[in-house]
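Late entry, evening session. Most of the bench is empty. Finally got around to the prediction I had been postponing all week. Sequence below, unchanged from the version circulated by S.P.
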Amino acid sequence: MQFLNHFFLKVLIPIKIGAINLSITNLTVWVFFAATILFLFMFFYSRRMTMIPKTGQGLLEIIVEFAKNNIAESAMGVDAKIWWPFIVAIFLFISINNLMGIFPNSYVPTSNIIFSATLAIMVFFIIQITGIFKTGIKGYLKNFFIPGVPKWLWIFIVPIEIVSMLAKPFSLLLRLTANMLAGHLIITVILSMITIFKNYLVAIPAIFLALFICFFEILISIIQAYVFSILTATYIRNILNPG
């Protein structure tokens, strides 16, 4: 199935140092491309801020305000004063990586489970370390003991709470990866029908259907970045305010 080739991880420049594999893949290229676009956009339109914003500055302010108000502050309350830059950064970074799918023959980084797992694990450790520093070991451990539950039930409750904690990064990475991979697979399969059937009666509807799903995928890309970010903000709020 040649039309699915661009979904696979490909080594472009093999680099190995002993047992360590540092090869540059198509995933590496597209992640750096996405990060470069985001950096240049933020750099150029935040360098010379004016009271009356122009198009680029206005768009930047709208995006940042949206993420700050509707994700960080709505999920975290007063804790958002410290954490909103981190939440906004996650939202922007995931959004731009999701939107890489709009380029022909692109590799969408967030459709790769390793990339999504890296983001989820990073968020997981930041949450746990923050909880320990903010509330101390004793306060952190309170997250595993539900108030009002008889002590004899703790032997059952604590393992359940630990499993629940470990399941959070899995829920983040699976939701993000599955949604991004599924949408682009559907578009690819629809467009592949053109080369398979080689018929105008198939080609014209396939193109219009693919365009419709493509526009829908842009919306899904933003929604998935929103979901990942708001869940991250919620997890941070919960760890900072145990019980």
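Two things to note before I forget:
The chain has a mean pLDDT of 84.
Residues 73 and 80 are 5 Å apart (CA to CA).
Will write this up properly tomorrow.
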